[in-house]
Write a structure and sequence with these properties.
EC 3.1.13.1; alpha+beta; exoribonuclease II activity; 6-stranded antiparallel β-sheet; 25% strand; globular; 5-stranded mixed barrel; OB fold (Dihydrolipoamide Acetyltransferase, E2P); exonuclease; RNA binding
């Protein structure tokens, strides 16, 4: 007879193997076969009844798990010199996890009793089941510096790259970390702040050549003035925060809410669940729950945390790092809806009918526990018939009902007709060294669209609730295109043989008709790009002007309070409107809503510019080894000084200088958006297919210079001027000559 394990042995196995927790896995681990499985089943049921385990979707696990970012207390080193830590946020009733601290060379020494914030990874070792990497000591907040290391006789100095930072930092010999003269380094303050003489620093990471890829995002962060270190008061407030309990909240912990995010997501601020509506008055309808991290419970008005979050306005995302709006203690831990961890939330229950229309909703302030943290690709794979160990048990009870609700929502979306642009999203893939290994275009899966549609519905519900309760809030506003941009789009469409009618109130359905007419043709990308460029920039406002792109009258951002301050304002407004507590929107905040709206709209644009500059520099570094190669692409912009080309392979934009276009003078027509050769009549216009040669790539600036080889598969003609001396004809001045050129441009366009 096979030996049946004790209850403690079963708990130890489940704790050490959190991904192998089905009854079959446990039986296999202990060699239990045949009739002996009955005894194992009895033990598991007893453990479940005693509260040590809970059964979820045919698997057994501890009721709670440690979040990926957690506060630990360092224990004394063991006889082998290994450093272990005790998790201070363990909520489970099973065996407390064992955490090994894995130190890096640049980490400061840790001693028994130190409290640290660490990033945890699940492992399957004999003596521990988590490994921890130090983020920082709790209660400490050493200042971070990015600069050029200059070697000296004993150590060296760091010269900041930030234009606003003129103070140099002294680095002693033992804190250099092998940095070489001229290298870009990241360092942290070492020693008291009030030390006489130059402040001291310790190098924590060598970034190499200042023009190297790994340095790119840090340079952009500093150039655009994005705050990337938190003041001491902010860190102190975050460190004092404790997990919120059930008091005053609705218990949602048994609801199988899921988070579905990118595979590399570190914070999870939204979770969802859906099921068929059992209300007989709503046949074919669904109930959709969307639960959002209750950031307002931790970031209260007037605190240092609140002031810093407002100052930043939003998190900034780069290919190799994130500059968060909130400290790691909140963004990666207490406010993040990690799998198996109780978390405070504000949730909305929404009813939709068989046509996908929202027919009712209500908000609650609750406590949830995510059933699983999944990523888009694995969810889509499960629905497509390829579930894995994580998604398999969730497929029938949770995932399929989510997709059924989404299929119904698509009916309402089709009726509403939001703007349907088809522009692929670019993804830069980096190696561990920070070098670009590939540039790919993200797949647009139904899993992405499902989450997007659920979030839009929740945002609408938030706006409608606050309007109905007459509470001030910040709306997400997107106004319709300006008349001149619309006319430019109309001309581009006409040149492609398409039509955008005049004399009617513009609606997104009219633009969608244009996009659909262009779909599958060689002008599809041109029409999508031109439509995007005709759009106004979305912004925040205390007044409601609607959202043109989404074809919605009432819209507010509610679903991402970890990374957007606007959402935190909406959360506070909901708290006040429902009387949930004293951490709602204050009169002082209401008085300066207009100022806040302008400020966070500006910080959003600042982040977008920094992210774009970073992407340009990464792409320039990636392409710098391919100078001289030929690429296909499309004209994406026209200026007096040249033409911009978006290359097919990478989506990178390069410039063809007008000086390189041949031996003739090119007339620039701002209204038509064209360059026209004075000798050959060659017309260069947005949307043309081209072949170019990469002439130069400058990673420091992100600039790409291109040489135009062919247009629409035709070799580039040359003007009649002598070699090296382009003919410059007198600028067109008379109305008759201008009209003649315009007519010629139109003829050339139609011939295309």
């Amino acid at each position: 007879m096979t030996r049946i394990p004790t209850k403690q042995e079963v708990l130890d196995w489940i704790s050490a193997n959190p991904t192998l927790t089905s009854k079959r896995d446990i039986a296999k681990a202990f060699g239990i076969k045949g009739a002996d499985r009955i005894d194992l089943k009895r033990i598991l049921k007893e453990l479940e009844a005693e509260g040590h385990l809970e059964k979820r979707n045919r698997s057994y696990r501890d009721p709670d798990r440690l979040p990926p970012v957690s506060v630990l207390q360092v224990k004394a080193p063991n006889s082998d010199g290994d450093l272990f830590a005790r998790p201070l946020e363990w909520h489970g009733e099973g065996v407390e996890p064992i955490v090994l601290i894995v130190a890096r060379a640049s980490d400061p020494a840790l001693g028994e009793g130190d409290r640290i914030l660490a990033r945890l990874t699940v492992v399957h070792e004999e003596d521990h089941n988590y490994e921890a990497r130090l983020i920082r000591r709790v209660g400490t907040n050493p200042r971070r510096i990015v600069g050029i290391f200059r070697k000296g006789a004993e150590g060296g100095r760091i010269v900041p790259i930030d234009k606003a930072g003129s103070t140099e930092w002294l680095v002693l010999d033992g804190a250099v970390l092998g940095a070489r003269d001229g290298e870009l380094v990241e360092a942290e303050q070492a020693g008291p702040k009030n030390r006489m003489g130059l402040p001291r620093a310790r190098v924590v990471e060598r970034l190499g050549d200042p023009s190297a890829p790994k340095a790119v995002s840090l340079i952009a962060i500093h150039q655009h003035g994005i705050p990337d270190d938190f003041p001491d008061k902010v860190i102190a407030e975050a460190d004092k925060a404790k997990p919120v309990g059930l008091k005053g909240r609705e218990d949602l912990r048994d609801m199988p809410l899921l988070t579905i995010d990118p595979s590399d997501a570190r914070d999870h601020d939204d979770a969802c669940y859906a099921h068929a509506d059992d209300d007989p008055k709503n046949p074919g309808g669904h109930v959709i729950w969307v639960a959002i991290a209750d950031v307002a419970a931790y970031v209260q008005p007037g605190t240092a945390l609140d002031r810093e979050a407002r100052k930043r306005g939003n998190s900034s995302y780069f290919p190799d790092r994130v500059v968060p709006m909130l400290p790691d203690r909140l963004s990666g831990d207490l406010c993040s809806l990690h799998e198996g961890v109780p978390r405070a939330c504000i949730a909305v229950r929404m009813q939709i009918d068989a046509d996908g229309n929202k027919i009712g909703h209500r908000f609650v302030r609750g406590l949830m526990r995510s059933a699983a943290s999944l990523h888009y690709a694995e969810v889509q794979d499960a629905i497509d018939g390829n579930p894995n160990d994580r998604t398999g048990p969730l497929l029938e009870p949770v995932l399929k009902p989510l997709y059924a609700a989404y299929a119904t929502l698509k009916k309402a979306r089709a009726e509403r007709q939001p703007l349907e642009l088809d522009l692929p999203e670019r993804k830069i893939v980096l190696s561990d060294a920070g070098e670009v290994t590939s540039v790919a275009f993200r797949d647009r899966l139904d899993a992405h669209k499902l989450i997007e549609e659920f979030m839009i519905l929740a945002n609408v519900a938030a706006a409608e609730t606050l309007i109905a309760k007459r509470r001030p809030l910040l709306f997400r506003v997107h106004e319709e295109p300006a008349p001149e941009k619309l006319e430019s789009l109309r001309e581009t469409a006409q040149a492609a043989g398409l039509n955008l009618a005049k004399g009617q109130v513009l609606q997104t359905r009219h633009l969608n008709a244009l996009l659909n007419a262009a779909a599958g043709t060689e002008d599809a990308e041109l029409i999508n790009l031109s439509t995007l460029r005709s759009m106004a920039q979305a912004y925040y406002n205390a007044e409601n002007f609607g959202h043109f792109g989404l074809a919605l009258r009432n819209y507010a951002h509610f679903t991402s309070p970890i990374r957007r301050y606007a959402d935190l304002i909406v959360h506070r407004a909901l708290i006040t409107a429902h009387g949930w507590g004293d951490d709602g929107l204050t009169e002082d905040e209401i008085a300066r809503l207009d100022e806040t709206a302008t400020h966070i709209s500006d910080t959003e644009r600042r982040s977008m510019m920094a992210e774009r500059d970073t992407t340009d520099r990464y792409l320039a570094a990636y392409l710098s080894e391919r100078v001289g190669n030929e690429f296909s692409g499309r004209i994406s912009g026209i200026a007096r000084f040249g033409a911009f080309v978006k290359m097919d392979e990478t989506g990178a934009d390069g410039l063809v200088p007008v000086r390189s276009l041949g031996r003739e003078f090119f007339h620039f027509d701002r209204e038509a958006g064209t360059l026209m050769g004075s000798d050959t009549g060659l017309i260069i216009a947005i949307g043309q297919r081209v072949t170019v040669r990469l002439a130069a790539a400058t990673p420091v600036t992100g600039g790409l210079e291109l040489e135009l080889l062919s247009i629409d598969d035709q070799a580039l003609p040359r003007g009649r001027g002598p070699k090296g001396r382009p003919t410059r004809r007198k600028a067109v001045s008379t109305k008759r000559k201008k009209d003649k050129i315009k007519r010629k441009v139109e003829r050339k366009r139609r011939q295309r």
